[in-house]
Amino acid sequence: MQPLLTLQHVKKSFLQPNQQLFGRKRNSIINDVSLNLYAGECLGIVGESGSGKSTLGKLILGLEKPDSGTILFDNINIHQRHNKSSMIRKHISAVFQDYTASVNPYFTVAQIIGEPLDIHESLSQSDRNKRIEELLLQVGLDHSFFCRYSHQMSGGQLQRVCIARAIACRPKFILFDEAVSSLDISVQTQILELLAKLHHQLGLTTIFITHDLTTVTYLCHRVAFFYQGKIIEEVNPMSQLGQVKHPYSQQLLQSVLGF
Ligand SMILES: Nc1ncnc2c1ncn2[C@@H]1O[C@H](COP(=O)(O)OP(=O)(O)OP(=O)(O)O)[C@@H](O)[C@H]1O
Predict the structure, then answer these.
(1) What is the count of structural domains for the chain?
(2) ipTM attached to this prediction
(3) What family does the entry list (predicted)?
C-alpha cells in the first residue's frame, strides 16, 4: 500500500536572531526527518517545547518550505509551486492550539465553518446551511451555536467549531498541533473522545503533535518521539510503549507514569 504522506530526509533551518540583515548563520530546526503515514492511521509526534514539532507541522501543511528533502502527499510533492493547488489544500486540514487566534472574531460560527466550504465547494445557500448544521451536530454542538460569535463560547466549544471547520470539506488528512493543550483536563478528555469518534466515523488520517504523551496514548496508533528536530524513536503499536529504549523517550514515559 502506498503511504498517504511521505517525508524523505526533510531539513529546515532558520536564520539566527539578529542575522536577518547581514548574517548568514542559521539554526537547524528539522534535522533529516523521514516518515510514512498510511491512510487511516493516527500518528502521535511527541516532544518537548522547542524541539521543532510545530515547524515540522508547518512543513507538512506547506506553510514552510524545507531547505532540502521531499514531502509527498498522495504521491505529489506539495512544495512544487504548481502543486500548491486548491485540490491539495482541500485534502489537507489543520487544528491548532490557539483556537481564539484561529478564528475571525467578527465571524459567526456559520461563517467560520462556511469559509472552507465557500473556497472549495460550490453549494447553494440552503445546502451550505444544511452542511453547517450537520457539521455542528457532528462535533456535538446544537443549532443554537449557528449565529454565535467566538466571544460567546467557551474554549472547548470554540475548539469544536475549529474541528467542524477542519472536517468541513472532508479532508483526507488533518494535522492537530497541540489541539487540546490549552483546555481544562475535563474538556481535553471530551475533545479527545470527539476526535476518536470522528477518526473512526470519517476514516481520517491524522498527525497529532503534542508535548503530552498521555493524549497520544488515548488517540494514536503509533508514536514518534521527537527530540532536537529528529525522530529519535518510534513506537508501533502503542502496546509497545513500555519498551522504549532511548533515554529521552524513557524520561517522557516516566514523567507520565509518575516515577
Ligand atoms: N519562522 C521562524 N524563524 C526563526 N526561528 C523559528 C521560526 N519558527 C520557529 N523557529 C524556532 O524554531 C525552534 C522550534 O520551534 P517550534 O515552534 O517548531 O517548536 P515546538 O517543538 O513546536 O515548540 P512548542 O511546543 O513550544 O510550540 C524554536 O527555537 C523557534 O524559535
Answers:
(1) 1
(2) 0.96
(3) Belongs to the ABC transporter superfamily.
